[in-house]
Backbone:
C-alpha cells in the first residue's frame, strides 16, 4: 500500500492525481487515475452509477487516501466539498455559515459580516434567523453553497448538488455555481444531468468502471464522444 | 383451630390493610400540605446531592461518551463494553467501594467525607457516570453519522468534533442527563451506606422512606414516596416537553 500526499508545487495545477487507485475489500473503485485540474477550471465528472464519480471527488478532497499512487491537493482550508444531501447543523441559517468560518479561524465581527455577505449572495438573508433544518431542499443546498462560498475556497467540489431538486431550485443552484466559478474558484462537479453538464462544464471527465475513459473539452465531448461507454451513456441520458 | 382475622389475606386483614393505606395517604397529604420542615429539609438535601452528582457525572460522562463515540482507537470496544456493563452496577457494591475508600483507614479517609453529603455525592456520581457516558455515546454516535464526512472535509480535529456534537445533540443529551438524575435521586443502597442516614445531616428521601417503613411510620414514608415520584415525573415531563418543542422547531 502506497500512500503519498504532497503539497502542490507546479504553478497552475491545483489538483494532481498520479496513477492513483482506490481499492476497498479487493474491489477497485478507481483504477490508475491520472488527472490534473488547473486553477479556475470548471470540470464536470460524468459517468453511470458506480463509475467512481463520488470516490474521485473524495480523493480530491482527501476524504479518502489512494491505495496506490499519489494525490496532490490544496490544504483542506482552501477547499470545500458540497454533498448531495447537505449536512446541516441544528442551528440557525446564519449560525451554520458562522460555524464554518469560526473553525477556519475567522474572528468576530468579521465572521458574522462574512456570513451575512455569503447569505445575501445566495439569496438567503431573509432566512438568516430561521432554523436551517426547516429550509426547503433547494434552500438547504443554497445554504451549503453559502457556507462553502463564505470561506472563499480555491477549490470547490460538488457531489451531485442538484440531485432531487425541483427545476427552479436547480436553476438557482446552477446560477450560484456559475457566480462562484466566475469569481476564480475552481469547480469540480459530478452530475447525472447531461444538460446541466453542458451548461456548466468547460471540461468533461467521463468515468467508466473506475477508469477515466475520456478527458476532453465539453464542446468536443458532447459532439463526438470517443468511447463506446460515453456514447451509450449520452444516448441513454438523451432518451 | 380458628383463623386469625389479623392475618394478611383474610377478609378482616385486607380491610385493615386498606384502612391503613387510606389513613397513610390522608396523613401524607396533610404532611405535604403543612409544609413540614423535616420533609422540606430532606427533600432539599436529596435534590442538592443528586443535582450535584448529576452535574459532576455530566462533566465526566459526556466528554467520555463523546470520545468513545468518535475514537477509532482499539480501546473503543473494551471501553464501550465496560461502560454498558457499568450501567448495571449494583448500588450496594458502589456503596461498599466508596465506603472503603472514604473510611478512616481508606485511601481517601483524610478528607473526612464518610457520612457527609459529599460522600453521598461521590457515590451517586460513580453510579450514574457510566449511565450518562453510555447513553451519551449512543446519542453522539447517531448525531455524528450524517455529519462525519462533512467534518472530515472541514479538517476538524477530535475536540472540535466533540464540542460540536455535544451542542448538536443537546436536546437528546438533556434527556440523558435527566435519566441520570432520576437514577441518582431514586438510589437508596449506596447513599445509605456512605451517608449513614443521619437525621439533619445525610438523611435523604429514599433513606428516610426505608427507615420510616421499617419503623412502621407509613405516613411520612408515603408522603416522601409521593413527593419523590412527583418530582421525578415533573422533571421528566419537563424534559420531554422541552425536547419535543425544540425538535418541532427544528423539524
Residues:
Amino acid at each position: 500500500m502506497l500512500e503519498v500526499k504532497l503539497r502542490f508545487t507546479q504553478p497552475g495545477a491545483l489538483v494532481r492525481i498520479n496513477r492513483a487507485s482506490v481499492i476497498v475489500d479487493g474491489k477497485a473503485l478507481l483504477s490508475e487515475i491520472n488527472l490534473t485540474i488547473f486553477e479556475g477550471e470548471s470540470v464536470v465528472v460524468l459517468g453511470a452509477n458506480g463509475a467512481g464519480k463520488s470516490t474521485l471527488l473524495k480523493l480530491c478532497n482527501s476524504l479518502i487516501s489512494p491505495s496506490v499512487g499519489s494525490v496532490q491537493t490544496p490544504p483542506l482550508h482552501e477547499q470545500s466539498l458540497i454533498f448531495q444531501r447537505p449536512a446541516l447543523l441544528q442551528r440557525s441559517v446564519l449560525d451554520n455559515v458562522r460555524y464554518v468560518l469560526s473553525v477556519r479561524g475567522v474572528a468576530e465581527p468579521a465572521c458574522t459580516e462574512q456570513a451575512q455577505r455569503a447569505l445575501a449572495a445566495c439569496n438567503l438573508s431573509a432566512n438568516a434567523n430561521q432554523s436551517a433544518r426547516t429550509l426547503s431542499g433547494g434552500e438547504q443546498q443554497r445554504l451549503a453553497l453559502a457556507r462553502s462560498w463564505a470561506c472563499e475556497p480555491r477549490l470547490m467540489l460538488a457531489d451531485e448538488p442538484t440531485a432531487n431538486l425541483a427545476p427552479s431550485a436547480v436553476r438557482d443552484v446552477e446560477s450560484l455555481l456559475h457566480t462562484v466559478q466566475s469569481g476564480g474558484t475552481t469547480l469540480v462537479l459530478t452530475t447525472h444531468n447531461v444538460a446541466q453538464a453542458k451548461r456548466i462544464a468547460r471540461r468533461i471527465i467521463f468515468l467508466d468502471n473506475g477508469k477515466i475513459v475520456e478527458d476532453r473539452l465539453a464542446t468536443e465531448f458532447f459532439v463526438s464522444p470517443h468511447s463506446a461507454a460515453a456514447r451509450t451513456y449520452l444516448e441513454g441520458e438523451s432518451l | 383451630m380458628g383463623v386469625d382475622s389479623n392475618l394478611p389475606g383474610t377478609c378482616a386483614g385486607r380491610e385493615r390493610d386498606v384502612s391503613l393505606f387510606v389513613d397513610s395517604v390522608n396523613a401524607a397529604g396533610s404532611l405535604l400540605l403543612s409544609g413540614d420542615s423535616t420533609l422540606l429539609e430532606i427533600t432539599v438535601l436529596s435534590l442538592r446531592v443528586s443535582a450535584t452528582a448529576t452535574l459532576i457525572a455530566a462533566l465526566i460522562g459526556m466528554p467520555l461518551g463523546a470520545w468513545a463515540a468518535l475514537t477509532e482507537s482499539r480501546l473503543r470496544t473494551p471501553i464501550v463494553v465496560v461502560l454498558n456493563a457499568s450501567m448495571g452496577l449494583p448500588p450496594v457494591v458502589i456503596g461498599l467501594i466508596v465506603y472503603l475508600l472514604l473510611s478512616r483507614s481508606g485511601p481517601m479517609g483524610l478528607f473526612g467525607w464518610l457520612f457527609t453529603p459529599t460522600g453521598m455525592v461521590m457515590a451517586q456520581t460513580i453510579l450514574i457516570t457510566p449511565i450518562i457516558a453510555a447513553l451519551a455515546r449512543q446519542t453522539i454516535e447517531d448525531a455524528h453519522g450524517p455529519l462525519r464526512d462533512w467534518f472530515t472535509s472541514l479538517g476538524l480535529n477530535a475536540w472540535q468534533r466533540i464540542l460540536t456534537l455535544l451542542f448538536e445533540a443537546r436536546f437528546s443529551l438533556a434527556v440523558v442527563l435527566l435519566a441520570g438524575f432520576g437514577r441518582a435521586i431514586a438510589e437508596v443502597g449506596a447513599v445509605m451506606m456512605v451517608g449513614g442516614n443521619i437525621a439533619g445531616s445525610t438523611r435523604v428521601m429514599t433513606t428516610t422512606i426505608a427507615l420510616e417503613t421499617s419503623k412502621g411510620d407509613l405516613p411520612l414514608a408515603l408522603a416522601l414516596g409521593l413527593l419523590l415520584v412527583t418530582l421525578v415525573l415533573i422533571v421528566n415531563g419537563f424534559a420531554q416537553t422541552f425536547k419535543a418543542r425544540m425538535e418541532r422547531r427544528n423539524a
